[in-house]
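General statements about sequence and structure are easier to judge against a single worked case. When preparing material for the folding task, we compiled for one chain both its residues and its backbone structure tokens. The amino acid sequence and the backbone structure tokens for this protein are reproduced below:
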Amino acid sequence: MAKLTLTQYLNYLGTETRTMGWGALLIYDRAKTNALLAQEYIERFDKNQYFPPFNDSEETDQNAWSDMQDFILDRPRLSFTNSNIASSRARLSMKVVGGKYVTLVKPIGTRLMDITSIALMDPLNAPSLHMDIRLEESNGGTITDEGRVLLDLSRGESYTFHLSSSEDRNRKLGLALEQEFRSWDDSRKVFELSRIVAGDDDLQPHSFAVRTHSAARAGSASVSQEDDQEEGAVLIGVALKGMSNGMFPINDKDMPYLLPLVGPNEEPYSMNILLSNQQWIAISLGQALQRLEASRAIVLNYPTTPTGKITGVAARTGEIMPVTFCYNLPTEFVWYRGPRAYSLYRYEVLPASIDIGGAIEFKVIDDAIHLMWQSSNTVRHVKFYVEDRNGDVSKTYPATVDTHFSVKYAFVILTEGPDKGKLRLEQVGELEDHFTMAIERATGEFDVLNQFHRGIAAAWHSAMLETFNRFVAVITGAEVTINAMHLNHLLFRSQQAAEPRSVYTPCDLTLLGTLAPDRLHFAISPLEPVIAAGGVQPFSITPSDAQVKWSVDNLPGETGDKGAIGEDDGLYIAPPASSFEGETSRRILITARDGDKFSQALVSITVSDISVYPHLQVAQFGGARYVLVGGDGNGQELDWEMAPGGKGTLRRPDPEGLDSDLDIPEGQDVCIYVSPDRDPSGGKGDVKQALHLDQVVARNVSGNARTIDLLVPWSNPNAWFEVEAHPEGVKLSMWVDAFEGAEEIPPEDAFWYLVKGSGQLNQNIYTPSESSNDYAIIAAVEDYRRLTYAYIVLPLPFIALRKFNALRHAGDSGKDK
């Protein structure tokens, strides 16, 4: 079904309540929701960690382990990743902006684990962590007494790292994080969406649930494009205080799309707040009637159609006194009948009090709200106070009164001041006044009283009308309002998260508008660039017709050189590396502003202008493929090449073809290394008989380069190293299996090679360099005709020796604690 026109939409709402048991239903355009969430994420970004540093060693395959040390995750960003009410998904995305990642494998024929890859995380190569949430299986959201709006994360469907080219390994690493997450106490298993201010407002939510809805499949069973790409809406069902939760349809087709079409050249609706029929009538019209002054308490009644639609609210009981109910003649009226004289000095209508039960009501008719006072064929009595010479001869006559007073009201949207965005009930039409009063005619000697009927009817009409106008004044003076926009804070933190444009009350109250026009009027690009210290980054906006001014600021609570940006051209120049004073990275905010409209970007500045991932990879010969990732501080594509003497090859990834089985990270500079066929070289005792070191060089436009080491063993090692502390660094001993058990090969019986490293190797004694992120590759080949060799990646001082040995024995002793 296509989107509904506004008329079709209002007709759909007009027959019965459509909030599915919720007190309110919030509907937002999904793309604009994600854009606003990104802007709020940037606006409130700080250096505080949302999750603690993550450390774990996990078996990811048989005889294969991964070790994650001090993984620092930046603040999570929420987004809604699909449009499907039956299978709604949200995602928390975080970047790993710091930490060390090491993988280990136990080669066949050896007894200990050996390192197969090393990577150091930084903002330039930051891999991502995704925590996917199956919304229909989550426990929904709650609001604490302090107003914290919390989304339950305990039912996260999948936790996926993008650390490896293997999807299976990434999945298992995600499971490790999931297990860690589930071990936390409940207070940490939530994500704070927002904060909502508690108060006396009648629309106080206490719980909610979230879904997404497809525009293409809404109201029909048609097949649409992929639901993570298509247009759709985010739905939030809100249970208000004292209410239980509602429900959602099973499928997209079971409900029309609730953001209707607009006219030509109009901004599409991107926000809709549906207040349930019962809720909005009770908190506005019902409370308005309760404000009327009465001598007997007003009890309300809510007329309902067979479909359950509440059509208004009426006073079931209640009693009031009109302002004027009797009239004293200024001079007595005297008349004669024969010798007898009569004098009239007062008349009044009885009873003076008016039972308004069933007479006064608010009625919703064709999307208009009417305050009505209707009473037909009401019998009252008119008493004439008459005296003659014998005393009181007063007379009372019945009177039939028909009253119909009506005033039309409508909700208007307040557009300025502290109540901006609220709905206020205002009179929009003239008073309709229909009144008749028929008094039974007097006969005989009292027939003269009939001449007062017209005046009495006019006086009673005036008294009734004055009373009704007093009602109108009370309701107008009370400024009956509905603060529906308050509910937007369930998802958004911005004070003006949306701008309402139209309000209708066909049954449920629908408040249609635009999501954050001040924040989303234009979009800044790029949104989250990573650049090098001293680098240059141009910014632009889309659409480009806005006349914006650019500015740059530090994060809240931070100081330091923030760089400079051209106020008119958006050209940003990052601060020099010399200003970082021991920091390796810094983040700043870029703002583009046009009057009240603005957009922001979050810039990560790194001291280094180039980074690669991983730093080391042990590769299997014979055409095996490995994903190499690079980051450039200038945002340019890197130049990848094999170093001289290389035997492998490089190419760009083909994610839809040759590399469809690999996990290719999106939005990053990626190259595929293809290992060579087996090709040993060198003579007896030469390490080249055992292995080969390929090196891939990534170079940026500034000429700076980083190297990735790819170690290609030509055969599985048939010996292994034990490592222990030594006064000069570490001591390596070479071991082989023998019939009697493990046998050590004397160090003098082997050729020792420092394949890679900046430390010093003196036979089997290695002295590491002082660089904290260095590592070494050491190999030894026994001096015999038959090739017996071992190699080891020594991550010293990248990892402490004690930790390294614990990891190497992980396959024997279980997960290192």
